[in-house]
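Aim 2 progress update. The chain analyzed this quarter is reproduced below.
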Amino acid sequence: MKQPILAAALALSSGALAFAAPASAQDVTGLWQTQTNGGQVEISRCGNSLCGKLVSSDHIKSDPAVKDTKNKDASLRNRPLKNMQMLYDFTGGPTKWTGGKVYNAADGGTYSGTITLLSASELKLKGCIVAPLCKTEKWTRIK
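Predicted structure tokens:
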């Protein structure tokens, strides 16, 4: 009598693991390599939304104290680029987040954005001034 109960328990726990694995594979949080400027962005949860900070880039590697000199807001031009929040207010999931903002230090502009998780190791970030004036990049997971 104990064997059928044990078998049922094992089957249920195996089924639970099968459902748990895809959920973690679909987690967008982590460290991502950008397509340009050697950027590395850490995406994390900020309350009920996603946010991301610039951890490293070619500019940061050559000068760790590099500032956000092109920011359209003059009062922010003295802040360091390293660990600066550049993604914020993305909601949705588990594979597509919308309604967020993308800050681009290269031109000092902030754009509306979407993040689409293409696989466990690749995402697509799209930033738009207004549709159809958009730029899309594919990022690769570092960890």
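The longest strand covers residues 109-119. The two ends are 46 Å apart (CA to CA). These observations will guide the mutagenesis experiments scheduled for the next reporting period.
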